Amino acid sequence: MKQKTKDNYDFSDFLLDDEFIRMVKDESSSEFYIAELKSTYPFQEKNIDMALRVMVSMENIHLYSTQDQRRRVWSGIVGSFSASKSELTGNIPFQFSFKSQIVKNFLRIAAVFLLLIGIGSAVFYFSNNSNKEMSIDSFVSSNKVDYKKSQLILSDNKKIEISSGNSRIIYSADGANVTINDSSSKVQPIKNVQFNQLIVPYGKYASLQLSDGTKVWLNAGSRMVYPPIFKGKYREVYLQGEGYFEVTKNAEMPFHVKTDRLSVEVLGTKFDVMAYSQENQFSTLLLEGKVSLTTPHNPKTDQGDFILKKGERGELQENSNKFVLEKVAHPENFIAWTYGYINFEEETLESLLKRISRHYNVNIQLRSGTGLFKISGKLDLKEDPDRVLKGIAVMSKMKLYKEKGGYLIKD
């Protein structure tokens, strides 16, 4: 038998070649590697392109376990090949010729991948099907991120690291072109259903203009998932952390902000959403217009529709499905972080330190009998936490100690 080498590979051999897989997945060298491969083996260009298309279709893989889902997945897999290759006979996915080399190659690949994950408990769900069914909630839960660095993740899973502390991202009206910090532009293909992600680490913040013109500011330790272009009956994004929104009005397509515990519906307005799961803190502050608050488990909440008016803040209670309403005297202070500082008037020291701890992701202990006394001032978030906390210590007439694992402020 003739030994398999790249000059006599079929497309399935490329998919089972460790070097090919590794080099194609390496964003820094993939384009050069593919170009060089095609140049070395020009007669293999069709097989290389077919292998690349299969890899793209496998990019978003999700695990399912029911028999019905397995049948649908397998039908979709074979069906997608029958639609693209005339060698498969008939219109029904399972009516094909086993004599076809293309079918044999595909079944070989499918068998290898299904064997790796265990067909008894899960199967691959290729992007041609998963994109049609995947909701934004499913995408968020199946794509975990960390907050170690600022990055924009496009729909093809391309990750763009953002070095500046205050990044600014703008989408074109068609969602395909993305401008970062007024200079660097990226282009992404627009498919039926897909999502982008913006991750903002602790100690930084970012602004974002969506394809509909809506402006969003993301606070430290935040993540937003959103489509590059809105389609359908409403505009929907998912927020983890804190975001301030100035929504472009469109009565025909309401804007929804979803979080782990509450949802905000709006036609066009200005509001701040806080959704820090680790602190179990979920609230919305309205600065202009009108919004409706609901929860995923009970769309009407235990109180029915919960409507906020200008200057009101609705916070979801920690152990219930009810909102608590608060009238805020200076709502603009709560969004001062969008300008890079914290502005506080008559705020308790305990509350202020909690905000600073969240922003920088540092542990701050307060040992004082006066933690509830109120303090006013302004702090520059572009400074490092040492300088910010020294300023607070001076204003509160206390002492600051830097300890292993954080800071201590005490009388």
Write the layout of secondary structure elements.
Elements: H1 11-15, H2 18-25, H3 30-40, H4 45-57, H5 67-84, H6 101-117, H7 127-133, H8 136-142, E1 151-153, E2 159-161, E3 166-171, E4 177-180, E5 184-187, E6 196-200, E7 205-209, E8 215-218, E9 222-226, E10 235-246, E11 255-258, E12 263-266, E13 270-276, E14 281-288, E15 291-294, E16 306-308, E17 312-316, E18 323-327, E19 341-348, H9 349-360, E20 363-367, E21 374-380, H10 385-395, E22 399-403, E23 406-410
Parallel strand pairs: 3-7, 10-11, 20-23
Antiparallel strand pairs: 1-2, 1-6, 3-4, 4-5, 6-9, 7-8, 8-10, 9-10, 10-13, 11-12, 12-15, 13-14, 14-17, 15-16, 17-18, 19-21, 22-23
Structure description:
- The protein is α+β, with helices and mostly antiparallel strands and 411 residues long.
- The chain has three domains: 6-130, no CATH class; 136-327, Jelly Rolls (Sandwich), CATH 2.60.120.1440; 344-410, Phage tail protein beta-alpha-beta fold.
- Helices cover 27% and strands 29% of the residues.
- The chain has ten helices and 23 strands.
- The chain has an 18-stranded mixed beta sheet that branches. It has a three-stranded mixed beta sheet with strand order 20-23-22, covered by helices on one side. A two-stranded antiparallel sheet has the order 19-21.
- Strand 1 and strand 2 form a beta hairpin.
- The termini are far apart.
- Mean pLDDT is 78; it is low at 59-74, 80-99 and 115-133.
